[in-house]
Amino acid sequence: MSKDNFQDLVTFLKVNGYYVKIVTWHGGTSANVSKNDIYGAFAREDNDECSTYITGKIAIDNKKCFDKFSKCPINLPIPTNDKQRKFLLEKMKFFATKEGYKISNYYDYDTINVYERRK
User: Which stretch of 7-11, 24-28, 78-82 has the lowest confidence by average pLDDT?
Assistant: First the structure.
């Protein structure tokens, strides 16, 4: 992968069947991502116009539960390697399930905001 983690994430999500819409404006670049029951967004680190919950991060929730980025159960830094991208994808798939919906809908979660560490 290249040093452009934002673009690498766009490519990774598209390859895995997610719809990604790039939004460019005077303050920078962000992206909306969706598929089935998943919705979220992420933005480049240098984006001064976006929510702090997506600047340099990706915030994801079940589409039926989404309210605002600060309430997303997934709020991770933009992944920088394959291991992190796979971890993110695994969590995204989970929150698209009925069980993921229930957990998100009832706020029965601790926000996932760090990648798994090696054991």
Answer: 24-28
